[in-house]
Design goal:
With 357 residues, the chain is α/β, with parallel strands linked by helices. The protein folds into 3 domains: 2-49, no CATH class; 63-268 and 310-354, Glycosidases (TIM Barrel, Alpha-Beta Barrel); 271-302, no CATH class. Helices cover 29% and strands 21% of the residues. The chain contains 9 helices and 15 strands. β6 (157-162), α5 and β7 (189-195) form a beta-alpha-beta unit. The longest helix is centred in the first third of the chain and has 19 residues, at 13-31. The radius of gyration is 24 Å and the shape is globular.
């Protein structure tokens, strides 16, 4: 029964969070008729939709941030509204296509960020493409920089999120950042995303201190401690994040440091059933699962079996997010960024304030 409940919970995590908060509103309205115009219309939800679990309530005081950064997906604009306490919105994302060209640039006019600054995020999700656009000998780099500057015209700034840089392109990457910083001019903010580090690595493609020289902010992606191919675990544990923050504070000036906080979670299963199989492998799994028969469909053998799969999940709710935020706050880090808007427990926004200047 626990396995079934766990799987149901993990597959419905976001709706459940939304529902949990909505239930509190219903209960308040039932006790306070003036809260709703038509309190008689408020009804309890069906028994089968009520979560069987309880979540911890955040503890302590709300977190007060100098800067609060959040990522908004251009194809999920319905998940964002300008009332969310953000000083900076990262509009995700323009990308590098197979020809080394800038493509898919988000339309700035589609998003109303209110008083928050809006930054164009540029990504490259291929090691091969990263190599060809960064190495000057392939004559793609100069045009790409010009195109980024042009695309950034309606934005307050640009953020570079290249996470797959080949080791031999370390120098090319750093000079690319320097050239883009110069081309953008002082009127545009320039930020760079870097993966989590807990110590100095001599040949690191993402040297924190050097990258910090070329940009206004460095966004430390302090998540994916556990990933899809790892053992089950949190995407950002407290102790791991403490070590990342300690190293980041030594390497990045306080004014430029943004600590990234994850809203998302992950699941792992004890058995992966999809895949391509050797003949021997197909026979093995059929035998292990006591497959009763093989059916020939148009002369092609097929089979079915029912498998019990154990699912383990780790996720973030308002409580865990605030634990991370308080950790950074206690380390005198006043700038934090959240990946991403839409994935969060909505309760988290009741615990984040923007500090008055």
């Amino acid at each position: 029964m626990k396995k079934i409940i766990g799987l149901f919970f993990l597959l419905t995590i976001v709706p459940a969070f939304m529902f949990a908060r909505g239930r509190a509103d219903i209960e308040y309205a039932l006790e306070n008729p003036d809260y709703a115009a038509n309190p008689e219309d408020i009804t309890e939800e069906p028994e089968e939709l009520r979560p069987l679990y309880t979540l911890k309530t955040p503890e302590g005081n709300p977190v007060s941030l100098q800067e609060s950064w959040g990522y908004v997906m251009q194809n999920r604009l319905d998940e964002y509204n300008s009332d969310i306490p953000l000083t900076d919105v990262c509009f995700f994302a323009a990308e590098i296509n197979s020809y080394g060209e800038l493509s898919g640039v988000p339309n700035r006019s589609r998003i109303d960020t209110g008083k928050a600054r809006c930054h164009l995020v540029v990504i490259c999700e291929s090691k091969a493409l990263s190599h060809f656009i960064l190495d000057p000998q392939f004559n793609l780099r100069t045009k790409l920089i010009k195109d980024i500057v042009k695309a950034a015209a309606p934005y307050d700034g640009v953020q570079i999120d290249f996470e797959l840089i080949p080791g031999r392109d370390r120098k090319n990457y750093l000079t690319f950042l320097a050239d883009l910083r110069y081309s953008l001019g002082k009127q545009k903010w320039f930020t760079v995303c870097v993966p989590a580090r807990t110590k100095f690595i001599s040949d690191d493609v993402f040297p924190y201190a050097e990258i910090a020289k070329y940009c206004d902010r460095v966004f430390v992606m302090a998540y994916d401690e556990s990933w899809s191919g790892s053992k089950p675990g949190p995407v950002a544990s407290i102790n791991w994040c403490r070590r990342i923050a300690e190293y980041a504070k030594k390497s990045i000036p306080e004014k430029k440091l943004i600590m990234g906080v994850p809203f998302y979670g992950r699941t792992w299963s004890s058995e992966t059933t999809a895949g391509a199989w050797y003949f021997s492998g197909a026979n093995r799994i059929m035998t292990e699962h006591k497959t009763p028969e093989v059916i020939y469909e148009n002369d092609i053998p097929s089979f079915k079996y029912t498998a019990q799969v154990d699912v383990t999940g780790y996720f973030n709710d308002a409580y865990s997010v605030l634990q991370l935020c308080h950790l950074y706050e206690n380390m005198d880090i006043k700038k934090m960024g959240f990946w991403r808007i839409g994935q969060e427990d909505p309760e988290v926004w009741n615990w984040i304030n923007i500090a008055k200047k």
